[in-house]
Amino acid sequence: MTDYTAPAEWENKAARPGASGIGESYDDFLSAFEAFKDTNDRRLGEIERRMSADVVTTEKLDRINRALDDYKSTVDQLVLKASRPQRGGGAAWSGVTAEHKAAFETYMRRGEAQNLRRLEEKSLSASVDADGGYLVPEEIEAGVMRALRDASPIRAISGIRQVSRNVYKKPFAITGAATGWVAETGTRAQTNAPTLAELAFPTMELYAMPAATQTLLEDAAVNIDEWVAEEVRIAFAEQENLAFVSGDGTNKPKGFLSYTKIAESSWAWDKIGYILTGADGGFAAGSAADTLIDLVYTLKSAYRANAHWVMNRSTQAEIRKIKDDDGNYIWRPGEQAGQGATLMTFPIAETEDMPAIAADSYSIAFGDFGRGYLVVDRIGIRILRDPFSSKPYVLFYTTKRVGGGVQDFNAIKLLKFADA
Q1: Is the domain of 202 the same as that of 130?
Q2: Which of 2-11, 256-265, 382-391, 401-410 has the lowest mean pLDDT?
């Protein structure tokens, strides 16, 4: 067994995003994972021999585990940066779109709104009133939405619907229509109608308020499109992702953890089913892998093909230590940079908005979020320029409307860290 002795060095190196290229950073990540497995094997051996692990081994394992998370974060940042389009790239702006872009840039840089007002009056826009801001050009909106998808883990795996109104209503068949076999000349009995539920997803206003100096705005080298997208994406992503997980539905989307939760054996429509780990604040001794397998097969086969695990960083750190009955680690890193880790071959969506493992916590979700959770975006992002409230800075009050909620209660299951 190789004795790796440099986890502290890895921690320092992993904490410097961009210190090396994507390939080198990912190689470091894979090396750290091999060291993690060796150290964890040693810890498990000590537990078997002495009923407890050596403190030095446990501390070393924790350091390597933290380094793994830091390396993964570094690689993700480098991959995201490399995937962004280069400045000045993209297709040429056409006709009305180019006119809108020019008017929008003039408004952003100098506060001249007459051209924007004329364009929006011409298109009968609902945002003509300057007190409510002006619509950004479609290409800028598309850039913001792409950035949000990259930065918001739940949005990235959920179903998405764009609407032009404030509420999206969707009928959903709780029970399918009755069917049956019949002879060629036999009597066809009337089939039962399906039971339908109407799901309503109201969109709520989400805002961000980036600030700029007049010097920055007057700099022709500054790409206003990219500046807007970069400034608002993190603020929007953090707020909406939290709401998609645990929002209460009041002036924000309703998160999947905010619905009524019920033991899977008693599952009913409009509730989220869960199973127990068998221990408060942890896994029952010797059964962690079996419990996760049970959660996988709680989900119907039709949903498993596109299923994801959802958990936070600290929960994933605990999952890395688990082996199956054959002694294989059930958590695996991606095969190459840019590919996410998997657990039992299913991809993991890591979000810090999931609760950490604690007594009675719902710290792991598993399901087909593309069918289970719906994000509703009202078309249009608006910006209102405010040069007065925070002189000498110019504030840009930026708003979008977004809603969300569970649309198929069969598609998402939870793991409750409790024995009852």
Answers
A1: yes
A2: 2-11
Burial 251-278 (b: 16+ CB within 10 A, else e): ebbbbbbbbeebebeeeeeebbbbbbbb
Place of tokens 């209460």: 248
Comparing CA positions, the residue from 39, 33, 31 lying closest to residue 1 is 39
Residues 199 and 73 in one domain: no
Q: What is the mean pLDDT of residues 256-284?
A: 97
- Domain membership of residue 151 (yes or no) is no
For 237, phi then psi, to 5°, come to -65, -45
Structure pTM?
0.84
CATH number at residue 224: 3.30.2400
- Tens digit of pLDDT for each residue in 371-382? 999 999 999 999
Residue 154 lies in a domain: no
Quickly count: other Cβ atoms within 10 Å of residue 354's Cβ. 25
Looking at the structure of the chain, the number of domains it has is 3
More confidently predicted of 158 and 170: 158
Same domain, 230 and 273: no
Q: Is 279 exposed, middle or buried (0-12, 13-18, 19+ CB in 10 A)?
A: middle
* Residue 14 belongs to domain spanning: 7-82
Looking at the fold, whether 216 and 294 belong to one and the same domain comes out as no
User: Taking CA 125 as the corner, what is the angle to CA 124 and CA 130, rounded to the nearest 5 degrees?
Assistant: 120
In a domain, 90, yes or no: no
Distance CA(333)–CA(336), nearest Å, equals: 8
Phi/psi of residue 41, nearest 5 degrees:
-60, -40
Q: What is the pLDDT of residue 197?
A: 79
* 110 plus 229 within the same structural domain: yes
308-319 pLDDT, tens digit each: 999 999 999 999
The reported pLDDT for the residue numbered 95 is 53
Task: State how beta strands 361-367 and 373-378 pair.
Answer: unpaired
Residue 334 resides in a domain: yes
**Residue 164 burial (C-beta neighbours within 10 Å; 0-12, 13-18, 19+):** exposed
**Angle at CA 375, nearest 5°, toward 242 and 175?**
115
Model confidence at 358: pLDDT above 60: yes
Distance CA 205, CA 200 (A): 16
Q: Are residues 229 and 101 in the same domain?
A: yes
Helix and strand counts by DSSP (H, E) for the chain:
13, 19
